[in-house]
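From the pipeline queue, job 12 of 40. The input is one protein chain; the requested action is below.

Action: predict structure.
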Amino acid sequence: MSRKLLKQAMDDAYAIRLAKTELRDAYNRGDVNGVLAVFADAYSDMSAGLASFYGPEAQAVLRYRMKQLFARYRALLWHRSTGSASVSHEATLRAIPCPTSGHNHLDSRSRPAGF
């Protein structure tokens, strides 16, 4: 691999790690705008079992869903490598009920993730 291609690959890997960090930090702060800032303008929402949304409509739906999540829960997102050299990762979202929300259940989900 040439030095130029290697540098580009390293720059891409850094940009991906930075975006993952920004997303995690925004989730953990309950920062809707921070979460949305990580997604491209052409973001598409094709959530399983739900209607699909594209572009500005997808961003509006994500904004709404994040506001609902952060209003009801203290959401914590983290990821960890489960393999070598970033081969396998797991993302966990833990939603801890807010004392004033009146919701009393804990929802924790772990799944293999692309980050």
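Job complete. The first strand starts at residue 44 and ends at 45.
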